[in-house]
Amino acid sequence: MAQIPLGRLGQEQDITDAIGFLLKANYVTGQTLKIDGGRSLG
Questions:
Q1: CA 26 to CA 36: how far, in whole Å?
Q2: Is 37 left (phi over 0), alpha (psi -120 to 50) or beta?
Q3: Dihedrals φ, ψ of 32, to 5°?
Q4: Exposure string (b/e) for 4-42, b if CB count within 10 Å is 16 or more?
Q5: pLDDT number for residue 17
Q6: For residue 31, which of 3, 23, 24, 41 sits 20 to 30 Å off, Cα-Cα?
Q7: Alpha carbon distances (Å) from 8 to 1, 5, 15, 41
């Protein structure tokens, strides 16, 4: 947990929120979306 800046484990809702964003974002192409609570920042 100390390695995750948001201080919590990811939940199913975190994934579905990201999917919902991508479904609405019609001008986003060729991106990798990391859903890791900021862990990959460090």
A1: 23
A2: left
A3: -110, 120
A4: eeeeeeeeeeeeeeeeeeeeeeeeeeeeeeeeebeeeee
A5: 97
A6: 3
A7: 6, 8, 14, 15
